[in-house]
Amino acid sequence: MNPITLVILMTIFLGFSFFMQYRQRKQMQERYEQLKKLSKGDQVITIGGLYATIDHVEPEQGKVVLDADGIFLTYELIAIKHVVKAQLADGSIETTETAETAVEHQE
Q1: Both 31 and 64 in a single domain?
Q2: How far apart are CA 24 and CA 96, in angstroms?
Q3: By the 8 A CB rule, do 77 and 35 touch?
Q4: Are residues 43 and 7 in the same domain?
């Protein structure tokens, strides 16, 4: 293998690695922003599959208290998989479409 081919391959590999790290960092930032916006009344799904409504958020401790049909459970913020419905400041509800529901709508 000649040195020029080796340099080209290394450049492609480094570019690909940088691109993957950039995308991962961007996704982490978006998730962090979503968790910061959580407030009382938002409907969420946990990583365990529990559908619940947020009762209150304790961002300094990284905890959230969820109301699942009258049962109050304390979770860490990172246990929130995604927001199903977010209650906005004006009282209206914003529904977020997940990747699973987007595929169902396309079919």
Answers
A1: no
A2: 21
A3: yes
A4: no
